[in-house]
Design goal:
elongated, 11% strand, alpha+beta
């Protein structure tokens, strides 16, 4: 029960932050962030109908279509966003713009919107709109939801060229990109680490140097060669990005022919690893 209340509060704050960013940073400068909210900015300028009303008009049929095609689970995840976002947009519509600088507004609007969307996605919620349409299209075309959403959002941003001019459209592209990057960081975490896998005939020497010079933590994984079927060990270690150059130097120093695989580690937790 306590967790449900906490999730509800986070969702409400995420919806408010989304609406706040839209009205304080993006809409005053005609910066279109994609989605139904971006379409509402364009149509408000053309029809002089409030954004909140336009968003409500679009969200209702999209919600019904989602219910019919995506099922009841979809309802639970999007009902708050679909119906409360227009209300929050209306409630924050009279807040004065934070700055007259369009670039600063684009950057701050993108960051705050990304945080808001990340908060909602982390609680299996959303603001409805193009993400719902993307899920419906994906269901029947089997295309990736993320790419479909990006295509829909960029199509809406491109409308800005015909209404507000190409310069505003470019600011919109910057904002959409920022939103995506911030959402990724929010969902995946802020950990700045690399997972490194090393295959070498001199694993023991490399392991000893990593432990003594970098004071890192390593794990030996038993493996077999795919062609020779020989037994060997793969050395796995987790290092901060700042230590990566030192690690490469150690490997080259011991075995110039070692195979090294480096991957981003977006989220690292557990005893002894949280501070990496």
């Amino acid at each position: 029960m306590k967790k449900s209340i906490c999730n509800f509060i986070v969702i409400l704050f995420g919806l408010f932050l989304f609406s706040f960013a839209l009205n304080v940073f993006l809409a005053p400068h005609k910066i279109v962030p994609g989605g139904v909210s971006g379409l509402a900015i364009v149509l408000e300028s053309v029809t002089h109908i409030k954004k909140s009303i336009i968003m409500g008009i679009f969200n209702i049929p999209i919600f019904i279509l989602g219910l019919l095609t995506l099922g009841k689970k979809f309802v639970l995840n999007t009902v708050l966003g679909a119906f409360l976002v227009p209300i929050f947009v209306e409630l924050t519509s009279n807040i004065a713009p934070f700055t007259e600088d369009i670039l600063l507004s684009s950057l701050l609007g993108g960051v705050l919107t990304g945080i808001a969307v990340g908060m909602l996605l982390s609680r299996q919620s959303s603001v409805g709109g193009t993400d719902t349409i993307a899920k419906i299209i994906s269901k029947y075309t089997h295309g990736p939801v993320g790419k479909i959403m990006m295509g829909l959002d960029l199509s809406i941003v491109m409308l800005t060229c015909f209404v507000f001019g190409i310069e505003k459209a470019l600011y919109g592209v910057v904002t959409v990109y920022l939103i995506g990057k911030v959402v990724d960081i929010y969902i995946r975490g802020f950990t700045d680490s690399k997972s490194v896998f090393i295959i070498s005939d001199k694993i023991e020497e490399i392991n000893d140097l990593i432990l003594t010079r970098l004071h890192g933590k390593t794990t030996k994984i038993e493996a077999r060669g795919g062609y020779t079927d020989d037994k060997r060990h793969i050395l796995m270690c987790l290092v901060a990005n700042t230590e990566l150059i030192k690690l490469k130097k150690i490997v080259r120093e011991v075995d110039i022919n070692a195979l090294v695989l480096i991957q981003n580690s977006y989220e690292v937790y557990g005893k002894g690893f949280g501070a990496t």
